[in-house]
Model the fold of this input.
Amino acid sequence: MPDFAAPPRVNVLGVGISVLNLDIVVEVLRQALSAGQRGYITVTGVHGVIESQDDEPLRRIHNASLLSTPDGMPMVWMGRLAGHRSMGRVYGPDLMERVFEWSRTSGATHYFYGGNTGVAQDLKVRLEQRFPGLRVVGTFTPPFRPLNVEERRALTVEVAQARPDFLWVGLSTPKQERFMAEYAKELDARILVGVGAAFDFFTGRVPQAPRWIQRSGFEWLYRMSRDFKRLWPRYSRIVPRFLWGAALQLAGRRPRPLV
Done:
């Protein structure tokens, strides 16, 4: 069985962001599967980095991941400023599209966990139509609370029967990161990937920002304009704090080690 060499990481305020771009990420995942790797992938942007500043267990979850992809442009810019010129954004929905297209011929299988009632099932139908040959082997809609003993057992049994290569987790940050870290060894899935609101994007429940806004680094502003009441408290806290922390790091302040 071949060895798997994970890509290097950029230290962004103590969170290790993998040096990746969309053109190489599928090959990295193919190599991981070929090498028999198991684990979870965090799709990490400013929100995840700032939540990790005051939450040491969460920071360790990010840094123990198989990969932590650069979800937002600030992660890409920090990587490029550290000398990784090839670094590009690996945004959850884009990652899913690339993996699904590859899976049409590779035979890799998928399982969807998360979303409101009916979302994961709708996602399955839509993606199987969009990507003919895609193999979605199961879905599970969790309650808005931790799973109880019976629900946990049911999920474990169902995933053991399906044995997916990829288990996509559509929860919010940091809920999905904690879920993956807790369940990665319990579920018989090769790689868990936390993709946040991607389920809602693909099923048309929530609109995505235009590409030019995504590339600008102001996607957070677009999202806040669409759901101001819910997102204003979050972004008014995390954006200034990230800008200040990033400025200090770029000015020479040493970030916390990647542990």
In short: The mean pLDDT is 92. DSSP finds twelve helices and eight strands in the chain. Residues 228-250 form the longest helix (23 residues). The longest strand covers residues 39-44.
